[in-house]
Amino acid sequence: MVRIKKEGVILRQADVDFESEAVLNPAVIKVGDEIKMFYRAIRRGNHSTIGYCVLDKPLTVSNRLDKPFMVPEHDYERHGIEDPRIVYIDGRYYMTYVAFNGKNALGALATSADLKTFERQGVIVPQLTCTAFDELAKVNTDIIERYRQDYNSPDTILMDKDVVFYPRRINGKLCFMHRIKPDMQLVAIDSLEELTQDFWENYITNLAEYVLLTPKGPHEINYVGGGCPPVETPEGWLVIYHGVDNEMKYSACAALFDLEDPGKEIARLPYALFSPDQDYEISGDVNNVCFPTGAIVENDTLYIYYGAGDDKIACASVSLSALVAELLSHSGLQSLA
Q1: Is pTM beyond 0.90 here?
Q2: Percent above pLDDT 70 for the chain
Q3: Is the pLDDT of residue 147 over 90?
Q4: What is the pLDDT of residues 250-274, one digit of tens each?
Q5: How far apart are CA 158 and CA 179, in angstroms?
Q6: Which PANTHER family match (predicted)?
Q7: Domains within the chain, CATH numbers bracketed
Q8: pLDDT in tens, 56-91
Q9: Angle, CA of 124, 126 and 132, to the nearest 5°
Q10: 3-state secondary structure the chain
């Protein structure tokens, strides 16, 4: 097994109103010598905004805003903007997040040229009722039977979260993963303008073709979901994602995918990369949570930033080469259906 080092908590809630309940689930990106961190901040009443801080070293916060960096602006996100991830593609920063209107939680996108001002692109995942989903996906009985388990009512909007972009175009395509429980799915498009209602209806009709990861081992048997933006290595895309077991314990998991065919699974760890075992992970607003959302590479060290106990931000580190080698020891090529 690969050796993981728990680096501990690096950010806790400050004595300011907008993060009076919790800080968690950060997006990170290195720009020059600085690591920019955009994190979910929760105030009383479960209202989320995005906070911001700068790290001058992977574990050292050097500057932190005392007010929200990004707040809800539109009806679809009126109750909160949550769980950001960020990448840099074609000269622009892509920040995905969960837009929550008090009832529906859906993947949304904002883009920026300078990390100072962001332009909202809106919800970019399907906005379908569960009844519509059933009708579109009816050609695949397995999909309907497994995905229906989370429906509250036929008129419920299908929850689609954990949108995470790959950090470059692949064969000319913008690629992102998203999560309709219990699996993770893959999208490849030429431009955001393709994400129309017709696109999503065709996509859902053929959803089995786009399943990227489905739960396998006991540590992820309940469901899986997107984590950090994929890390490009010579051996493939390293995907750090989260898995949830039958006791609702959230763990960080790892898989490797083909560089030019991101739907082709090369290897997956048959065990969790790391799980809650520290007090700050075991106890929190939600107990037993390690929820990875951001990563950077320094030399051969991969730093993984995650929400711990759903109310603080922690970091774990691992040798990137050792992790890839461990993954390859469990290789067995699998492709999207």
Answers
A1: yes
A2: 96
A3: no
A4: 999 999 999 999 999 999 999 999 9
A5: 11
A6: GLYCOSIDASE
A7: 5-334 (2.115.10.20)
A8: 999 999 999 999 999 999 999 999 999 999 999 999
A9: 170
A10: CCCCEEEEEEECCCCCHHHCCEEEEEEEEEECCEEEEEEEEEECCCEEEEEEEEEEECCEEEEECCCCCECCCCHHHCCEEEEEEEEEECCEEEEEEEEECCCCEEEEEEEECCCCCCEEEEECCCCCEHHHHHHHCCCCHHHHHHHHHHCCCCCCECCEEEEEECCCCECCEEEEEEECCCCEEEEEECCHHHCCHHHHHHHHHCHHHHEEECCCCHHHCCEEECCCCCEEECCEEEEEEEEECCCCCEEEEEEEECCCCCCCEEEECCCCCECCCCHHHHCCCCCCEEEEEEEEEECCEEEEEEEECCCEEEEEEEEHHHHHHHHHCCEEEECCC
